[in-house]
## 1
Amino acid sequence: MPDSNDIDADASPHDLLNEATEWMRYAGGIAELLGELVHESDAVDCRRMALALEAIGAIARVGAQRTAQAHALVHWQRARAEGMPTTQNI
């Protein structure tokens, strides 16, 4: 699993979207596993369930963050291609 805080400076929007998809699949897989465990369990440990749900939320947030970064990068690249001023050339 990639580190959620590491962003490759050379990452393309495609790379970021692939990473976002990977994070979202992790979240979905954990949610499915958790659902299966709850169905098969006689008793649910609420503390552990809460931690697992928080983890799913955190993983999903990383996926959403990568999607937002890809979106911003697409617009940044488009602005540079169109010759619009950016913070690097002001």
Note: Helices lie at 13-40, 46-81.
## 2
Amino acid sequence: MPQGDWGDLKVGRLLLRETFKEGESAGTSRTLDLEGQESSPPLTRTELVWRHDNITALESGCVLPLTFTDKPERNCYVNVDSVSADYTEYRTEVVTSDWKLSLTRLGSDAEVDLQSRLTGAIRVNDFSLTGERWHAPPIGHYGYQTGTSNPTMMTRTGADGAMTVYRSIPTGASPRWGCAPSSYLNGRVRLTSNGTELCGVDQSLSPTGWALTNGLVNVAIAASASFDVQAYTGGAWHSKLWNVSVAGSASSITSWDGATLLRNDPEHVILRLSKGLNPGRATLDLTLRRGSRTVEGYLQTTTSNTLAAYRSTLETNTSFAASGYVVATSNDADGNKFACGSARTFAAHTNGGVQKAASTTLDFWIGVAAGGSSAVSGDAATDLRNMYIACLPETIYAVRR
């Protein structure tokens, strides 16, 4: 949204005031140099501090969309080369941040495709599962290709709109697709702190007041449980409370001492929560991917004990622990069924969940089979399990057409 008489300049998630000048040069590479100032007033001090901190948190090496309000023909994809920002505060009067960005221009969406390199191997698991390779590019992408073999497609509709999810991605394929820079962030994964979306990982993050969402799943702090996992179905968010424990069901973790961002990209965010055990420590890594109906968890502790992730209150469930998952027996009031599981051998928790005795680690996933007993192919509990097993790390590159 334009700010007064100024337009918007967006670098990835970061919103800045668009300035008159944009410097460009060409040679062995094509570079862009931008500079400007953010100030309070007219921004609030909190808004200015957010912009300053997010400028300095921009990460190099990541493909980012660059968009302008008044110079839309300059919209393109870039890499960040260097960032600087001078913060000045005149007490009780004015606060300013004078910033400079040096960028490498990768090209417009007419010049480059985005290539998703899905690397690594499927999760090691105890159920002889090969899983299902899948991928979800931004809402608004076009021209998706995986080589000579085409994947299948499904649609998941979330708070951001209808998202295409590609299934059965051929082994070894690195999908290529086009996308206008102005559409690149649609359907992204985002981590907010007290309602403000964060850029990069070099951030001071409170262990309270955070939320992790991709428009299909929303994970947030809960007052009476470890966290609240919400699913977007039927045009609304639906909540279920979950606990995690490193000492059996009698002692769930309901507050956290620290929070750290390990990865913060539009396609993939990882949040690490930590809890002091006096002595010792427990950590929980929460992972959310673009287009996924599940949040992934990895719970660790320094001392072997019974680790668990389970519904905070009993919900009648059916255990398929021998096949790697647990699912609600009947549809809930919203027409869905909770589902969860692990890649490694576990025992089903009575409330509905997974637990593992005499262990220092527990991997798990939590989500819903949208539509419950009538879930479409791709949203059934077994599909969610298979997608968890074969979800691969994604790195995005800009490649010439």
Note: The chain has three domains: 8-107, 112-182, 188-387.
